[in-house]
Amino acid sequence: xxxxxxxxxxxxxxxxxxxxxxxxxxxxxxxxxxxxxxxxxxxxxxxxxxxxxxxxxxxxxxxxxxxxxxxxxxxxxxxxxxxxxxxxxxxxxxxxxxxxxxxxxxxxxxxxxxxxxxxxxxxxxxxxxxxxxxxxxxxxxxxxxxxxxxxxxxxxxxxxxxxxxxxxxxxxxxxxxxxxxxxxxxxxxxxxxxxxxxxxxxxxxxxxxxxxxxxxxxxxxxxxxxxxxxxxxxxxxxxxxxxxxxxxxxxxxxxxxxxxx
Length: 261
Hints:
Layout: E1 5-10, E2 13-18, H1 29-48, E3 55-60, H2 78-96, E4 102-106, E5 110-111, H3 113-120, E6 123-126, E7 131-133, H4 147-154, H5 156-165, E8 168-170, H6 171-177, E9 182-183, H7 189-200, H8 205-219, H9 224-238, H10 241-251
Parallel strand pairs: 2-3, 3-4, 4-6, 5-7, 6-9
Antiparallel strand pairs: 1-2, 7-8
């Protein structure tokens, strides 16, 4: 099987790339576990040799950054669904806790869990035509896994309105609403990410690590219990009859056959 998540390091900048472009980098069971492993590998390398990785870029291959959770593959498997949500929630936590600055390179759609990857990063760069947002409630799903990170990013009131309303935003609106830190023309995306990474690498290694750690303490980013509870809530809602009916219609999947009595 092709590598679902790749890691490359060049001159102090590590790039984590979701590599499932044929499925818009949707977060499958296998991709989420591959992402978790890469994040662990980056954390271990930073701990062992702090100067080797000074900044991390999270990117996606193809037209989309990340289309969110691949719910179709596990729609009728609540156990696997729960495992996926737990691993995704803990991976967002681990990404947040990296002691180096993180940048999301959002070249295309970032939806649901994909937008969770965007807001958990310290910086996010996109372009006006990109689509970002949280349409979970439109599908009968609870966006609990991404909610803590969105609240930390844009505040409780704006996050409440965004998550309850659902839908998506263009890149320009995402900048105005605080989902991303930079919105540039598509042709300038890579240059802006490179310039931002270079600027971040001029800071002191220990100073940035200590600042990130203290910021995480201040906003509660280190609370693993919230990450686990969020995944459990999402899993319960997805398993509910309402969510199952919404998702079956969305994916045009027939409900599972009932056992004969």
